[in-house]
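Weekly modeling sync, notes
Attendees: AB, CL, MP (scribe)

Item 1: holo prediction request
CL wants a bound-state model with uracil before deciding which constructs to order. AB pointed out that an apo prediction alone won't tell us much about the pocket. Agreed to run with the ligand included and paste results into these notes for async review.

Input as submitted:
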Amino acid sequence: MIALEIPADFDGWRNQAKQLWFAHRPPEQVSWGEASLFGDDIGEPTGQALEIRVPAAFAKLAETVFLHSDAGRLDLLYRLFWRLQSNRQLLEDATDVDVVQAGLLVKSVRRDIHKMRAFVRFKEMADDDGESHYVAWFEPDHNIVRANAGFFVRRFASMRWSILTPRLCIHWDGKTVHESPGIVKPADLHDDPAEDLWRSYYASIFNPARLKTKAMLKEMPQRYWKNMPEAQLIPELIAGAQAREAAMIAIGSAPDEASPADWPQLAEAINRCTRCPLYCNAAQAVHGEGPFDARLMIIGEQPGDNEDLAGRPFVGPAGQVLNEGLAQAGIDRKTAYLTNAVKHFKHERRGKVRLHQAPNAGEVDHCRWWLDAERKLVKPKLVLALGATAVRGLTGRTGSISKMRGQPIELPDGSQMIVTTHPSYILRVGDEQREKAMADFVADLKMVAGLLKQLGNPKP
Ligand code: URA
């Protein structure tokens, strides 16, 4: 038996597998293990003319299986590699035990990669020089940390961060990724006032009537909870959910009914939001502004470059188009509450320019908590959705603007939603279409003005 130490990277294993093949070592005679006692010689090439034949799909599969923590994974890979030399179609055999086993390992590694992307929570800390350094703790099941580094570098390119894990730690200084050995969890990582604030907000928006424990556990497995501040409340919330649901039915209203007095706390919680990774690249969160008794709430997509810097909604070019439309329709912007479906500016940096990127459905859905809270607080009678992201933020669904515009749509809270295009669409279309796009936009705003008139005097 040849006992080999597990190589540090996939290329190392691939080279060993090739040498073993040239030395004509069958899988039954080879085994890889973690201990340093291992490290036998592979042996000399037999001198036979042995060609290596593996389909491209094997290389991809093997790279992923290599990341699994299962002690037998490299033995399995070598067995597959060996068998592929005489059967190139082997991977297509869905009943083969080795193929099935490799497929299961791939699935588990992919899931772990996904979970790391979804559940890493950074905490802002200060370096010795006083600069911000974001630190996260994560406990992966497999050796996926290095393979996932590229994702975090792309996402958080402009921050300095470290992801600490028991397997391997990675650090980004804005230019280069560094690695250091895995560590035990530092004691003070998830223990600060911002997290307390988030936890109390999470508790207040946790809706027992919508609780689907099974689905939640599937999406957010319990073992990740300990590193997610909000998740520490879940057991308690689930336990109290039935009683609170009954109470909700009894009093006929949601327990998180808000009033303007809650505004400072809500604004503060939005400012500190780290619910999705968008906060990392934005200068700040942009919450809504306007009178708390506004009858009209205007909802955009997300702050743009100007809004991100100013910390106020609709102050850039799209805001100017909106102002122009409102003026033409006879609506005073100051009487409306303006906000966005997503509170952080999502963008891609190209040199000095920050290019807008549309938020994806998951990001919009995450941010619905804040929009819902703003709606509960302002209780507008009319909500004007500027574009598809605003519609999703309001309804949780994606719909076609052209089909929805033209008539008010009643939302479950009794308010009327009017759908129109986003003003940035008017900036984007070609010159020949702009006039019509603006006229259609103003027509929608005039409908809003008409509905406001029907509502009569402002709310008492
Ligand atoms: N676009 C939006 O959707 N919202 C803003 O605040 C600015 C531009």
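Recorded for review: Residues 431-455 form the longest helix (25 residues).
Action items: CL to compare against the apo run; MP to circulate these notes.
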